[in-house]
Fold:
Amino acid sequence: MIENKSTHFKCIEFNPQTESLSLATRVIPVLKPNEVLVKVWGSPINPSDRLFCQGLYGTKATQPIVPGFEGSGTVVKTGIGFMARRLMGKRVSGAVQGADGFWAEYVVVQANQCLPVSKGISDEVASCSFVNPLSAWALFEPLRKGRETSFVQTAAASQLGRMVIRLSQKYQVPGIHIVHRPELVEELKKEGAEYVLDSSRPQFESDLKAACERLQVRYAIDAVAGEMTGVLVRSLVSGGTVSVYGVLSGKSCEVPPGDLIFRDIQVKGFWLSYYLKEKNPFEMIRLFLDLKRLLKSEGATHISRHLSLLEVIEDFKRTPPSSSHGKTLVMPFK
Structure:
């Protein structure tokens, strides 16, 4: 039940005209069939959320909207329909696209976009159940299925990067892991990463080329873009592919055309939304089963900060902190 039967709730609102965040109060809507109302426990601030609030994401807001693509909480009310009613009172993680999100005390979610959370999964991990774990799983697919036998990844100390490291250990696939600070090299090596390179070192590119040649790396996972995409293109062996899924540098990919033409290197984008749209219902069921297993091990997320709704608004006025040591969670009831 909703406490005190309140008809209103607090949220963060993004105004696309001013590209600003503010605290707002909204009315709890009437639920449609197979919708559920979730009392939000927490929601992460992902790079995709920041891009959305800068008007740079794949889907753009046309009117004030609540950000937060994913989160967790408890279902306190449902619309009609079996899929919705079976979730009543359950702890769930969920995701939204093109609708009001999780940076709010309450959020409406489609029942088929909710994943019941197992008892062994913490609220923090449940809050980060979709974007990073599913992206890591999808980006690692060519390696899981044997189409590629080695890889290189940027932003390896990020939460998604660490998931990829754990997947590479599980599937015994050698990888080269790029970080941007020297202290992160030893940190990742202690977690079992064998090949870790610091991009701030003068000899970084020559070391990367040598490592790619040694491991015959044809597949790169890039979260940085900018100059780094070009470095990866120059370092892969001929016939390789760079999959760009982020833009942490804030810059356009700088790619040498000679490598694309004469060495048959391909650069392509990865967006989780497109990946999921290609799945049929049976494949989605299988993917959710894989996700449940991921969250217990390789797909777990570490949280470093918890912010209230007001604290989030102030935090967005500053340079975003490094995600190397954990995610920031939005806590609506903090």
Observations:
- The radius of gyration is 21 Å.
